[in-house]
Amino acid sequence: FAELHAAVVGLPAAASRVLPGLVLRRDFATYCPAGGDLRAVLVTEALRPALSAPGVEFVVDSEGQYQASLCWIARRTEAVMKHLQSNNVKLLLSSVKQEQVVISYAKLYGISVVECLSSEEVSLLCEIAGVSPYAPHSDNLHGEITETTGVTFCQPLLLGSKRCVHIGLASVCAFQPHCLILCGPVDGVTEQHAAAVQGVFTMLQQLFKTVDQ
C-alpha cells in the first residue's frame, strides 16, 4: 500500500483521485519525451563500468594511462546506452544513483532515467512486469535484451509542489496497478485518510480469504 498511494498536502480532500499506473515520488534524472512502442529496463547496479573488480588493485603508471582508462569507461558506457536504444528502451529505472556520464549518454540516446528506487519499489516493479533487473556484460552488448517490459506511458507529474514520475507498465498478472492520490490541508488529515483506506483494504483481504476457504 505504501508504494500505491501518495499524499499531497495543501489541497482539499475533494481533490483526491485515482491514477492508472504507478507514481514514483521523485523527479526524472533526465526526461526525454517519447511515443509509440516504449520499453523499460530495471537496473540495480551502476552502468558506468569500474576499472577493476572488487578487491583488485588497479595501478596507473602515467597520466596517459589514466586518460586512456577514462576514454575506455566513456566508450563502454556509450556502448551500453546504445545497446539499450537499439532495443527500443526509452526508460531506465535504477535503484542506485547513476554517474553523470550515464545520464549524459541517456539524454543523447533519448532514454529517460529515474534513480534511487527503494527496494520495495523494485520488488513491486519486478512483480508487475514479470522481469528481473538487467545487468549488462561486456561480452554481450548485441542482440535482444530479454529483461525489458512494455511501457504504456511515461511522463512527469506535479503533485502540489513536488515533481514526480508517472508511468504505466504492461502487467503480466491480473493485478493492474493504480495509485491513490490522497489530498488534505495538513499532514495529519492525509495520514488519517491513508490509514482509513488501508484499513478498508485489509478488511477486504480478510473477507475474501474467509470466502475462499
Automatic annotation (TrEMBL):
Annotated PANTHER family: BARDET-BIEDL SYNDROME 10 PROTEIN
InterPro entries cross-referenced by the UniProt entry: BBS10 (IPR042619)
Protein name per its UniProtKB record: BBS10 protein
GO biological process: one example: chaperone-mediated protein complex assembly
Gene this protein is translated from: Bbs10
Domain of life: Eukaryota
UniProt organism field: Indicator maculatus
